[in-house]
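hey so u asked for the seq, here:
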Amino acid sequence: MDFVKWCDLVLQKTIEATLASSDARSIGVDQYQLARTIFGRKGGLPEFHGSKRHEAMHDALRSLQNVLLVEDSSSGLLWKATKLGKDLASENDMTPLWQAICQEKLDQEHQQLLHVVNKLSPHDEGDHVWLEEIPHETLLAELGWAEGFDLLWPVSRELEELNLISCNAAIGRNLQCYSTYPGLVWETRRGFTLESKFIDDLVAEWETTSVDFKRQLSLDTMDQKAEFIKDILSLANTKASGRRWFIIGFHDTTHTYFGPPDPKITQNRIEQILARYTAPPVDVHYEAVECRVGQVGKLEVIRDPRKLPYCVKEQMNREKKPPLMPGDLFHTCSRGGYVFGHFLVAEKPAP
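ran it, structure tokens below
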């Protein structure tokens, strides 16, 4: 378990503990009752007080408070989840919170320091994770910066202003840094979060002349391959501006998530089919990506205007529909569906 998952667990347990009584629901749960909810018998006194489990619980609570998911009263003695914390926990989806964090762009030096702090500060003991302060000597040894402390000081302060690390500075050249929840989210959840937002935005707009959705994709039979070729040629030939996407894993009618793509669908398999059946071969980039709803197949069709038009290269016989013939081309229209055409494919000259 990493610290982000640990914070999610502490948030869930805080909500669970506050529901145990009307008083706890009103004013919050005390730290020892919360510890028993999280750790069971391992959260009992006197062993719990001052232990690493105690430290880990408070690291999580302070981190959750920092992002407004829990609140405390009586100087940290009583805790309860905020409305935002309850809402996100009930959906079991933190991406609305993470999106704001992950929009931040960092230059190389900030990323380097953030990575080192996040590498050294969290300590995972299986059922709890705590954060340790890392002295500047250790950070500099890992970073290997020629400028040393003179660079570490401003970069660390700038990251702290973004809430991506926390720093304790003493008089003189003395600095300690430790991880924060937002900083760990930025480094470990950024790809997932931005990918989720990208897919969510496409689903919200649904199919356009440059985006096509499929519940699933199979490339075993000639009929399946021919349908795929039509879809790809339509995206490649359309005059719409911007990038072109073929997204796998969503219901055609409900627009809800259907399931992960067939693991047999790979970049190499797709390239083989396009090389055989399209002229010129359509360039694509395919990957199965993890996002909020689950794993999704994401295929980008890369259109080169110098190669237009893209058309069928080799005859593709189908069982219940007319075959696709060499020279057939397709593109989408603004009202949806295909527009069919034909392009003369010159025969190879006789040897």
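Confidence is low (pLDDT under 50) at residues 344-351. The two ends are 65 Å apart (CA to CA).
lmk if thats what u needed
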